[in-house]
């Protein structure tokens, strides 16, 4: 996508603040960036998050069958460093204002720094417990609980106990 837009790694590094080496690793699938970094990249490339996740046909609607969902790597690198979550894009309409994801949070993951990026997020807990840290606020969400927040506030989601948690996350 970067090349299609006529941008060099240096151009994208300047827009994102990421190093050219890190961007090259992302492009060559040596590392899998967290969702926050992907949102930052999408904004720098002036595209939707869905364009980074999968090809978009430009249709006015999208249907993704359960057996057609493509999971993204849950590892930060080929060395196996885990972010503690895995995600699958549920649907994306070209140029759409939001992208829904099914996110599985794994127990026992190493804490990672809070994420910040432009936009808003909505989460709905489908199963398990989710520990939410938002700025100085922390809470435990359970099945059926939901939360919406501005993504510019430092935030972190983590598994709330020793069992995986699954959430519907809508990023826009």
Kindly summarize this structure in a few lines.
The chain is α+β, with helices and mostly antiparallel strands and 172 residues long. It has 4 helices and 8 strands, in the order ααααββββββββ. The strands form 2 sheets. The protein has a 5-stranded antiparallel beta sheet with strand order 1-2-8-3-6.
Helix content: 10-25%
Most strands sheet: 5 strands, antiparallel
Q: Note the total helix count.
A: 4
- β-strand amount: 25-35%
> How much is the average pLDDT?
81
Q: Which strand order does the major sheet show?
A: 1-2-8-3-6
User: C-alpha Rg, in Å?
Assistant: 16 Å
Question: Main traits of this protein?
Answer:
single chain, 28% strand, 172 residues, alpha+beta
Overall description:
By secondary structure, this protein is α+β, with helices and mostly antiparallel strands. The chain is 18% helix and 28% strand. It has 4 helices and 8 strands; from the N terminus they run ααααββββββββ. The longest helix has 10 residues, at 35-44. It is globular and about 45 Å long. The two termini are 20 Å apart. The relative contact order is 0.16.
Write the layout of secondary structure elements.
Layout (H helix, E strand, L loop, with lengths): L8 H8 L3 H8 L7 H10 L4 H5 L31 E5 L9 E7 L14 E8 L1 E6 L2 E6 L3 E5 L4 E5 L5 E7 L1
Antiparallel strand pairs: 1-2, 2-8, 3-6, 3-8, 4-5, 4-7
